[in-house]
Amino acid sequence: MRTTVFLPGDLDVCSIAMAGSFCEARLVIQTLEWTESGVRLLDQTKLPVEESYVTCKSYQEVAEGIRNMVVRGAPAIGVAAAMGIALGLKNSSAARLADLARDFDQICEAMGKTRPTAVNLFWAIRRMREKFDELRSNSLPDIKHALVEEAQRMYTEDIAANQALGRQGATLMPARGGVLTHCNAGALATCGYGTALGVIRAAVAQGKALHVYADETRPFLQGSRLTAWELMKDGIPTTVISDNMAGALMHQGKIGAIVVGADRIAANGDVANKIGTYTVAVLAHEHRIPFYVAAPVSTIDLETPEGSSIPIEQRNAREVTHLGGQQLVPDGVAVENLAFDVTPAAYVTAIITELGVAHAPYGPSLRSLAEARAAPQP
Ligand code: MRU
Question: Domain residue spans in the chain?
Answer without folding.
Answer: 2-160, 163-374
